[in-house]
């Protein structure tokens, strides 16, 4: 973990995407004076399951996976977070230990905001509190949807949906087709609730059908319409 020069919150573009867009200059200044900035290297743990929270984490740049160990001993990816997203807030608000682990998927610049400062923001600003409530609600909806999808949807639909989710969440490169995130086959399998072998087989099928193109570690979506059909998503 590498420390960085502090960024001014009032001039931070990322803050406009987060709950902190509702704060006035005085509150932003308080955060600026108390936070830390760190770069977490690829594969580095940001926080670990069963540890006590000391900070709220706001991602300036990079990609982070939120994982949980399943009863079978395998890592399950519960969420992928990118620029402007907050992670670790649920344990803070519940006064509990982290239930999951956060790991940098690439070199990621992250702001560390002390717990007491974050809680003060929530208590003193109704709009911030409402946005936190919305985050909670969306997280619950996503979790419920994932359980239903894994139980009811064929694996090819789940893999296709996962690829579309990656495109929506992280975008594509300037060529318009290459996903901006490098994701391993086992990570994609974890998101879709299947095995690495099955995920690899489905990717090869989509590649053969020229719906996607596998280019080394990168995945290119060359036919979004057909991928939506494969995912059973209405255009």
Give the CATH architecture of the largest domain. Sandwich
Rg over alpha carbons: 19 Å
The first-level CATH class of the largest domain is given as Mainly Beta
Total of helices: 8
CATH superfamily of the largest domain: Jelly Rolls
Broad structural category? alpha+beta
N-to-C SSE series? EHEEEEEEHEEHHHHHEEH
Please tell me what the overall shape is. Answer: globular
How large is the share of residues in beta strands? 15-25%
What is the share of helical residues? 40-55%
Instruction: Predict the CATH topology of the largest domain.
Output: Jelly Rolls
* Spatial strand sequence of the major β-sheet: 1-2-9-4-7
What report would you give on this structure?
- This protein has helices at 25-34, 89-94, 115-124, 126-152, 155-170, 185-192, 196-208, 224-230; strands at 2-3, 36-40, 45-47, 55-61, 64-69, 75-81, 86-87, 101-104, 108-114, 212-215, 218-221.
- Helix 6 (185-192) crosses helix 7 (196-208).
- The protein is of the alpha+beta class and 235 residues long.
- The chain has 2 domains: 2-150, Jelly Rolls, CATH 2.60.120; 153-230, Arc Repressor Mutant, subunit A, CATH 1.10.10.10.
